[in-house]
Amino acid sequence: MTQAVHEAPVAAPRRRLSVSAIAPFLALALICALGALANPRFLSFDNITNVLARSTFIATIAVGQTLVITGGGLDLSVGAMAAFISGLTILFLNSGLIDSMPLLIVSAMALTLAVGALCGLFNGLTTTIGKIEPFIVTLGTMGIFRSLLTWLAQGGSITIRNNDVRAAYRQVYFGDLFGAPYPVLVILGVAVIGAFILYGTAYGRHVRAVGSNEDVARYSGINVARVRTITYVLQGLCVAIAVIVYVPRLSSASAATGLGWELMAITAVVVGGTRLKGGVGRVWGTIAGALILEVIGNIMLLSNVVSEYLIGAVQGAIIIIAMLAQRGMSGSR
Amino acid sequence: MPRPPETRSQSLPEAADPNGIVNGALVLEAVGLSRSFGPIEVLSDVSIAVRAGEVHAIIGENGAGKSTLMKIMSGHLAPTRGWLKIDGARIDLKGPVDAERRGIVLVHQEIMLAPDLTIAENMFLGREMRRGALVNDREMNRRAEKAMRAFGVEAPVNVPVQRLSIAQRQLAQIARALAVPHRIAIFDEPTASLTPVETTALLRLIRELRAKGVGVLYISHRLEEVKSVADTVTVLRDGKRVATRPASELEPLDMARLMVGRDLLALYPPRAPAPTGEPTFEVSHFAAAGFDQDASFSVRPGEILGFSGLVGAGRTELFEALFGLRKGGGKIRLNGEAQQWRDARAGMRAGAVYLTEDRKSKGLLLEETIATNLTLASLDEFQRGPLIDRAKESRALDAAIQRFDIRVGDKNLLAGQMSGGNQQKLLLAKMMQLNPRVVVIDEPTRGIDIGAKQQIYRFIVALAAEGRSVIVISSEMAELIGICHRIIVMRNGRIVGEVAGEAMNEHAIVVLATGVSASAQGARS
How far is A3 from chain B (nearest CA, A)? Predict the structure, then answer.
């Protein structure tokens, strides 16, 4: 046979992706350096652990969002879902159904996870079986979840009534294991499991395939609806994990709980280098993205250059800058 | 379009060669064009000249530099060295718009139409006709219809393009390109997804362009077509021009020889005798939704069964419905067991696979690696505990590269960076990971070069020799006749006949496919 067959030249260099893969970490390092310059207190142990702990909610939810977006979906309901599940968890803790304190808290956690998975399952089945755009479905459930909480709280807030329960559960947010605060361990754990699923398992590869090209996945015998639905269930579980850590922090849930979390989670995902239209997911990039958001907020509080009331504006600007940077890296379009 | 009087170039001895077949003035010349991407020179010192009223074919294997040359000549790419001349005067094209302004139009190989807009809307995109402040839809529809009718195609010009067949879209794209005033038309594999009837219409249109004095540059893999329509043939190999000759002096086999630089073995491998065993895959009274098909047929182990027909005959739809990829119903029996496949996975479990005709958007993940694509349909086989067994995957990749002669310098290449031939081999390798008993291959050689085609034919014959039942759907009658034991012909969604043995010839197939005796004769001659 002829040896004259050459690969058609492709103008784009192949390993370009690695640049965009490390970009979020470079950005995070740069922002931390700026933070240290602006205020020496930024690098103190207390401040760092505080920032990490506060970023737990968004980071955890954003790992789930990474899976959903990589699979070609989107979940706008996560903030409202967090509020709704928080309310249910606290109601259960207040119900006094179980006398044993440790058992009560563990049962509450299990219930939280189950409700989260169910909420995700509902989102997933409605988009896949109902064949409705995820944007619309989760916009709908966002309203439903938020409104359910407001109804449960009768317009006010739901608070853990029993002081003993509150004190015991408090440890989950404020406690530590050999000096490592639990929330930090939670971020690590969720990210490791998320990365394991996405990069190591056949299911993770199916998620990427479905997000990359649904037709190719279908013609390859992949059950697209099932793969997508499971991403929403995993997202629901991530929201539940965030709630487990969130409830002990304030011991209360109200209509303001989790407000805007969906936008922060999506921002973290996109800043981390995951492609918004699916097919490429970066779990560790998402963690970096979530930290960037939290660190910038923290720096704005510590320094007096910009009013902290502008945090939302800065975070909004970040997502736009991240998109521009991504486009710049993937060649001019 | 202003055209200066006869200005002859002195820079191109060969173009001014007295054996010039066409006497028109030189309209477009490429002088010593080279183009590099990074360190790789994909085009080196290529000069060609096109005259008014000449059809100049450019042929070569994938990677020979044809597309790069066409992109430079149509202003999509700047040369690293060399330049272009129009009417003997040196010019610098500033981009495709500039080229179009100077009368050079390019008909792209890839379909570039907005899928939600109609043919008419696409055709006039960016230069809509107006009546006052509103767009004049009626007039645009009328003109679009007229342009499509020039191809002998009755395509609805007012439905979204995505509802049309690939062939109809291709023709709409050609019509759109030619709607711009032009003196030079560049066609990049325009017939890759057309069937004989549309191909004939397109070739007729090209001859009309020639008669009007348009200079035509024509790229194609189909050498018979080149022979029939071209005046001059330029052969590229490895980015260099190896020959420019009058088409009358070259037979298709000579062209193929020049392209690969050595003698080719016979295009089709020797045919095994038709197997006589009992059929193991039987389909009866099957129909894809929206078609009145009532299709019944069966295949034996070791048999290669062809499916021929015009575009829109419903061949792809029938098999996609069989494999649960679209709606449909009927009876399927495999090895005596009744089957009903709700999705591709079900067919795979039963031992049957379908290789799509649309390898770029339905067959392969273009942004993923070769290995990821190879194992995508059979990932269950590559699991160890919860994880993917990368070592096993890597061994499978090596084996597939070996068996299907997938030619890649770097195994980390993305599927989208491979040539069409290698993509097709990869798609075949991917589905063969499932070790199926029934293999359906839709358009196995569309848009791939002759060397890779020859290999694909050998693979298909080898699959049958291993005792598998193979079904080949193709719009190229010659290849079906070359490799199949039997050919079933479809028309308007229905099976209208079957040819086998001595009766397998293009005439018989065309008569069945069109339903009109001798109407499309010479389609591929």
Answer: 8
Rounded Cα distance between B32 and A242, Å, is 65
The CATH number that applies at residue A163 is 1.10.3470
Does A18 contact chain B (CB < 8 Å)?
no
Best probe of the B interface among A6, A18, A192, A274, by most B CBs < 10 A, is A6
Which CATH number does the domain B281-514 belong to among 3.30.70.100, 3.30.470.10, 3.40.50.300, 3.40.190.10? 3.40.50.300
pLDDT of B517 reads: 54
Domain count, chain A: 1
Q: Do A212 and B368 touch (CB under 8 A)?
A: yes
Comma-separated ranges of CATH 3.40.50.300 domains in chain B: 55-71+94-259, 281-514
Question: What's the confidence (pLDDT) of residue B136?
Answer: 85
| Residue A13 within any structural domain of the chain | no
CA A289 to chain centre: 10
Q: With a cut of 50, list the residues of chain B below it in pLDDT.
A: 1-20, 518-525
Q: The complex's ipTM?
A: 0.83
Contact A220 B377 (CB under 8 A): yes
Nearest to A5 among B61, B361, B383 (CB): B61
Domain B55-71+94-259 has CATH 3.10.450.50: no
**pTM for the complete prediction?**
0.77
Residue A120 falls inside a structural domain: yes
User: Chain A to chain B, count of Cβ pairs less than 8 Å apart?
Assistant: 127
Q: Which of A200, A220, A222 sits opposite B387 (nearest CB)?
A: A200
